[in-house]
Amino acid sequence: MPLTLWMSLAAICAMGAMSPGPSLALVLRHTLGGGRLPGVTAGIFHAFGVGFYALLTVLGLGALMARFPLAFQLVTWGGAAYLAWLGIKALQAGRSGAIQAGAALTTTAQAAREGVLVALGNPKLILFFVALLSQFVSPEMSVTAKAIIVLTAMIIDGGWYVLVALVLSHSRVLPWLQQRAHWINRITGVMLIALALRVVTGPLW
After folding, report:
1. Beta-strand (E) ranges in the chain?
2. What is the pTM of this model?
């Protein structure tokens, strides 16, 4: 896989991981409820769920693109519309989008289980892989290139949420983050809308 293509892949995976949603809330809740270890565990096991979707993408959607290009194009446009909608909602959130925390106690086992389940049950992740990650897959792609795609998605996702758990485990960080949640929402909204426009303009490879 060319370096420039991999950098595009990494950037998209990073934006997908950093977008606010149930995954971030999960890691936040387990970090606050159980400390650093449950938060890190939730992030790592969330990455396993992401890796599962990435593996399905590289194994199956290449053939789907070849057989049903129109259907895939429609799904891609639908995914782009969904990303744009998320971006608009993030821009509209303003100060009401501040991150709230619950202090329920949690364990590493709960964090691991919920990390996987949230990843597998998150509709944003499903659309992300169908509409975006599959654009990096072609029928003639080598096994090594497919493995790079899967590992890149897993490492970036897990790395981001582990970092979130490590940072949020320091008590001084969370109030600062809550006070500036409106700016986080705005930046994320702009990124999602720009990404949706990029998807509509054509394939990424």
Report:
1. none
2. 0.65
Res 104 pLDDT > 90: no
What length does the chain have? Answer: 205
CA distance 111 to 168: 16
Backbone angles phi, psi at 24, to 5 degrees: -65, -45
Q: Domain total for the chain?
A: 1
CA separation for the pair 158, 91 (Å, rounded): 26
**Are the beta carbons of 30 and 111 closer than 8 angstroms?**
yes
CA dihedral 85, 17, 177, 162 (to 10 degrees): 160
Q: 103: buried, middle or exposed (CB in 10 Å: 19+, 13-18, 0-12)?
A: exposed
pLDDT at 71: 66
